[in-house]
Sequence to fold (394 residues):
Amino acid sequence: MSKRPIRVCLLMHSTRSDNLGLGALTESEISILRDIARDLGREIQITILDGKENRVPYITGPDIRIVEMNGKFILNPTGFLREVRKADLVIDIGAGDSFADIYGANRLRRMFTTKFLTHGAGVPLVMAPQTVGPFTKPTSTRLAKLTMRLCALVCTRDAMSTDAIRDMGLKRPVIEASDVALRLPFDTPAPRDPGAPVRVGLNVSGLLMAKGYTGKNEFGLSADYPDLIRDIIRHFQGQGCEVHLVSHVHPPRQELTHREDDYEASTKLQAEFPGVHLAPRFRTPSEAKSFIAGLDFFMGARMHACIAAFSSGVPVVPMAYSRKFAGLFGSLGYDRTVDCTTETNDAILGKIQAAFDDRHQLAQETSAALSKGLKKLSLYQDALRDLIARRAGA
Fold:
């Protein structure tokens, strides 16, 4: 008699997020789960509890089931709890960096509710590799410690997050892995003419161009981000480079006035700077990564756009607006991040130029750091495989 499929439920993942970074995490998580199922000689059924978005899912498959989740669904006994109890385990990736109290009480309240309902249902909860913290409020700190204490696995994607857990006084084992999007599949680009212009990619954050959600610079940037972006474009156009503006967050076309829309911000810049190339509105995270993989140099303020470059071998300068950048890349020994919260426009542009001039060395640094990241990520996959084997009776 054949064994039933392994059943896994995913939380804080998304099959259709406007932010392709969250989609990249989801697609990569699914890739890891499929590898584990193959290793165990089992079929797998993956249920994704997804938020409602105004787009068709771009992550699908015969082993994927999508269940829309809102506040009523979470609190309905025939909703969230029923789905969780069907699963052998639940994996929560915290949308990559949302397990913190810096994004507002509503998001964190929802995260704590789903976590503690899962604990109450007696189903093992896995914290997939993610940024943890900062937690600055007593209540959120206590609840974060409690849920992590109850989790079957706690995994971080950088040393800063591991240190944050230890600073909270939690002594339980923690797996310090790396970002699962290092595993995101992509198409290898075709060879290019050696005499062609250098292709420079620039990811423009619509959110930072708008100076944050409120327009009041709530991210605390010391750099003038819109001016910096224009300076970068002028600089590389002046060097005869082929400049490509690359979006990684773009709502559906009917919502083009969305503050976070990278594509809208890039379209306006293309009109301002003749000769600049506008990358397409990508349908999937892998499509975006496949495009980025064909560039010669890359910069960006969307972390997963930078991860796409980094993990496809493209020399990259991440442009940080939070500690998650230095945490992730620094943990892998890649120290080319510039900090838009502490450095001036001139200092940032100078570092970008130096990195561009040294891009062949950057490519070597990227290769070494990526190898380290994949090795660390295997710690998560091995631990997850062991847990699944125990839970599913493999």
